[in-house]
Amino acid sequence: MECLLSAEGGLERHYSPIRIEELVPQKTGQGEFELAFYHAGYPAGVRDKRYRLRTLNRSTCYLVAQRLDDPAPHMTIIFHDLSREWLKEHFCINVEEDETIDDILERIAQSPW
Description:
seven-stranded antiparallel sheet; globular
């Protein structure tokens, strides 16, 4: 997951590996949905997240959404598959061939990155 935030002085970008737990369409006719996920980049005790989102754009390999339930204006989130290359680039970890995504997320959650 990549978050883009409008911030004082420009754009902030944050990278976070997540595991999607549940997606619930809101049936508003406006592409709104609720997403529950495990956020490996947050401290223990606050890693289980739930966001209300609106789809802005999507394809078979990504989804771009706006967060609706956040006081920060204009938070845009890009969801895409986790790849070994993306994890190495943004979290400076070596990913073993036999590691599962759950193993990798737990390792990231335990690291001070």
